[in-house]
Amino acid sequence: MPLLDEQRPLCAVRARDYREPSRQTPRKMLHRPEGHPLVLPDRLGWNRHPTRSSVDSLATMLDHILVDVISSIRRAFESALLQRQAVEERFQVDVFLGDVSWETSYSLPGEDTPPRVTADISLDWPTWSQSAYRSWSIGEPHEDAPEVVIEVALRLQRLASAPDIDFLLRALPPHGATIGTASLTRSGPTVEQDYGDYDASSPEAQPTSQFAVEATYQGTYQLDEAVLEDTSVLNDHFGELARWVASILVRLGDLDLTFLPPEPEDEDGDR
Questions:
Q1: Among 267, 237, 253, which Cα is nearest to 119's?
Q2: 226: three-class secondary structure by DSSP
Q3: Fewer CB atoms inside 10 A, N or C side of the chain?
Q4: What is the pTM (predicted TM-score) of this model?
């Protein structure tokens, strides 16, 4: 007797048995009812090739507040006319602790590669926030509202000389944007010096370096009952963040600093 019946998919439900998941009820895994021919709900996009429309359709099924936060950030930064650095975007899960993090990067439009000024955005979703959100979604009592740790790292790079920190800090306020009830607070700046491919063993090599400086703003955004019930308020909260980041990037880009030209591309188009 064959171990696998090729006529019956193992992970599917009948179209008429499918129910839209609700925040107030636990989500159930898809299963195969015994003795019934099964088809996949076509509106999920699982019966088609992974085109953009099918991916968007599948994304709508990820009914999770963290996905709503990420979507709101993307819409807000695109509305602020900032350019996303797609190669710098990451979604990571700590398999040991269960924490989830998402990172992305934006720059002013029309910048070279790498851009002179960037804003690196990161979100941290700790395990206890996931537990609190799950309790809320299934109607169980929970003591604390889930939280997202937000970090905005503003970076100037390709600098030809070491920057004057006092001069830079005058362009960077001690407190950043207010997101809901959370205010971002600036930490101390970090200065980097990069010597590139300098080979000290070669007598003909001349040491050349470029500098970068980074200042980080951090805060904790609390997802209270009002936000969980109506996620549309996320657009207003993160719209304020995007407008603040755009204004800071323009301010940093207008500083009287000397930048090195971007690295030339090789034959493969890489830098």
A1: 253
A2: helix
A3: N
A4: 0.73
Q: How far apart are CA 206 and CA 197, in angstroms?
A: 10
* Rounded average pLDDT over 113-135: 94
Q: Are 252 and 152 in contact (CB under 8 A)?
A: no
CB-side neighbour CA atoms (13 Å) of 84: 15
- Decide if pLDDT at 10 tops 70: no
Distance CA 79, CA 128 (A): 32
Instruction: Write phi, then psi, for 102 (nearest 5 degrees).
Output: -135, 135
CB atoms within 10 A of CB 238: 26
Give just the sign of the alpha carbon dihedral 34, 38, 44, 50.
Answer: positive
Show the tokens assigned to 263: 């690295």
The one-character DSSP state at 259 is: B
d(CA 210, CA 112): 16
Instruction: In whole angstroms, give the CA distance from residue 32 to residue 165.
Output: 63
With H, G, I as helix, E, B as strand and everything else as coil, classify residue 8: coil
**Is the Cβ–Cβ distance between 159 and 260 less than 8 Å?**
yes
Burial class for 265, CB neighbours closer than 10 Å (0-12, 13-18, 19+) = exposed
What b/e sequence results for 163-182 when a residue is b if at least 16 CB atoms lie within 10 Å of its CB, and e otherwise?
beeeebeeebeeebbebbeb
Task: Quick: pLDDT tens for 38-66.
Answer: 443 443 333 444 444 433 443 454 678 99
